[in-house]
Amino acid sequence: MAALSLKCDICGVALRSVAEAQAHGDATGHAAFSESTEAVKRLVCRECGKACRSSNEWDLHSKRTGHAEFDDKVGGQGILSAGEAPCPLINQNGQPAGGGSQAEELVPAEVNADLLKQMEEMGFPAARATRALYHSGGENLEAAVGWLEEHQGDADLDEPLLVPKSQPKKKLSPEEAKAQAAELVRKVRERREREERETERLREQERIRAGKELALAARQEEELRLKRMVEARQREKEEEERARAKIKAKLEEDRRERRRRLGLPEELTEEEREEERRKVQAKVEEEKRRRLPIKPVEVGEKMRTLLVDMKKAHPGQDDALKTCWQTLLKMCGNIYANPGEDKFRRVRLTNPAIQQRVAAFTGAVDFLHLAGFQRDAGGENLEMPADKVDRAVLEVAGEQLNSALNNPFFGIL
User: Fold this and answer.
1) Which residues, in sequence order, are bridge partners of residue 164?
2) CB contact at 8 A, 361 and 321
3) Which SS3 state, helix, strand or coil, does residue 160 take?
4) Residues 6 or more apart whose Cβ sits within 8 Å of residue 131
C-alpha cells in the first residue's frame, strides 16, 4: 500500500506532508521520521476543540477527558513532497485551509498575553503554554499548569494551536473560569494522590521485600556461624582427645621404664592395683568433704513454722520461750560439735528440767524430731543414732533458733 502519512519515530505524531515534518522537526528538534500507511485525520472534539490526527489519539483523549463526540473535518491524503502543493483543503501545517465552501479558515489561538509571558518565564514553550491557556479558559495560571499535567502525553502538545476563525472560543465568565480552574486543580490533585499512593505502595512492597531478604541473609549467616562454631568445637575436642591419648601413652611408657629400671614387672601387681583403688577412693571422699553442704530448705521452713506457732501459742511468755529456744540451741550445738558422744544424742523427757524448759511448750518436741531425734521403744526418751546425724540439718536448726532469739520482729511479720 502507498504511504499516506509520515510518523515521528520519537514522539509518534502523524504528519501529512514533508513540509509539515520539517516544521515539526524545527519546533521539537526531532529528526527521525518514517512513512506510514495510516491516513492523517482531523478529529475535532466538539466539547474542547482538540484536534486528533488518528483514531488512537482520539481514543486516548476520550479516555482522559470523557468527551465522546467529534467532527471529522478532513479525510486522509497521500504524502506530499517538499516541492508539491498540499491538498487545497489542507495548509502546510496539516490544517484545513480557507477559501473553499467545504473548509474553515484556521487562525492562531489568542490567549492572555500576560499569562502567556508568565508561563514562558516558567520555562514552558510558547506553543505548549498557548494550548494550556486556551483549553483551560485562559484566565488562571494554576488551571493552565493543571491542564498541562493532564495532557502531557498529547502528541501535538508542542505544535502551534490553530482554531477556526468563524468559531472563536467562547470567553468564560469569571465564575465559569474559576469553576473550570478548580475542576482542573481537583483532577490534578487526585491524579497526584493516586500516583503518591501507588508510589507508597510500591515503596512499601520494596521495603518488605528488602526486609525479608535481610532477615533471610541474617538467618543464613547465623546458621553458618553456629555451624562453624560447632565444627571448631568438634576439632578442638578431637585435638584434645589426641593430645590426652598421647600424654597418657607417654606416661604409661615412662611408668614401664621406671619399673624396668627398678627390676619390677611392667604390669602392676594385684596389691599395687588395690592400693591405687584405695587412693582413688580416698581422693573421691576428700572431694565430697570439700564440697559445700546443701542446706535442707524444706526442713528449715518447717522448723521456722514450728517456732512461729510456739510464739503464738504462748503469748506473754517471752522469757520462758527464750529459755526453751536457748535449750534447744544448746542441744543441737552439742551434737553438731561432738557427733560421737552418746550423752549428747540422748534426751530423757521425764527429766524435770527438760519437762519445764522444753516439753512444756507446744511444738518443742516436734522441733527435735525435725532435727533428727527419734523416740525409743518406751516413748520416754529421744535418741539420735550416730549414723543418722546430719550436720546440715543441725546447722539449719541452729540458724532458725538464732533468728528466733535475736530478731525482735520474729513471728510478727
Assistant:
1) 106
2) yes
3) coil
4) 109, 151, 157, 161
- Environment class of residue 100 by beta-carbon count within 10 Å: exposed (0-12), middle (13-18) or buried (19+)? exposed
Cell numbers representing residue 29 in the block: 528538534
The set of cell numbers assigned to 182 is: 478548580
**Which residues 6+ apart lie within 8 Å of 156 measured at CB?**
13, 51, 53
C-alpha triplet 24, 28, 29: angle, nearest 5°: 100
Cell of 26: 524545527
Pairing of strands 374-375, 162-164: unpaired
Q: What is the mean pLDDT of residues 386-402?
A: 90
d(CA 307, CA 370): 12
Which domains are present in the chain? 5-183 (no CATH), 184-290 (no CATH), 297-406 (1.20.58.2190)
Amino acid at 189: R
Report the side by side order of strands in the sheet with 346-348.
346-348, 381-383, 374-375
Q: What is the DSSP string of 306-349?
A: HHHHHHHHSTT-HHHHHHHHHHHHHHHHHHHH-TT-TGGGEEET
Per-residue pLDDT averaged across 355-369, rounded? Answer: 91
Question: How far apart are alpha carbons 113 and 404 in whole angstroms?
Answer: 106
Q: Does residue 151 have a pLDDT over 70?
A: yes
CB atoms closer than 10 angstroms to residue 78? 13
For the residues of 136-153, what is the DSSP string, one character each? TTSS-HHHHHHHHHHSTT
Q: Cell triple for residue 344?
A: 549428747
Q: 378 vs 88, 166, 375, 381, CA distance in Å?
A: 146, 140, 8, 7
Please give the residue that has the higher pLDDT: either 48 or 386. 386
Q: Which amino acid is it at 234?
A: Q
Please name the residue that has the C-alpha cell 555451624: 227
- Residue 359 DSSP symbol: I
pLDDT score for 304: 92
* pLDDT (average), residues 255-265: 86
Sheet architecture: strand order including 33-36: 14-15, 5-8, 33-36
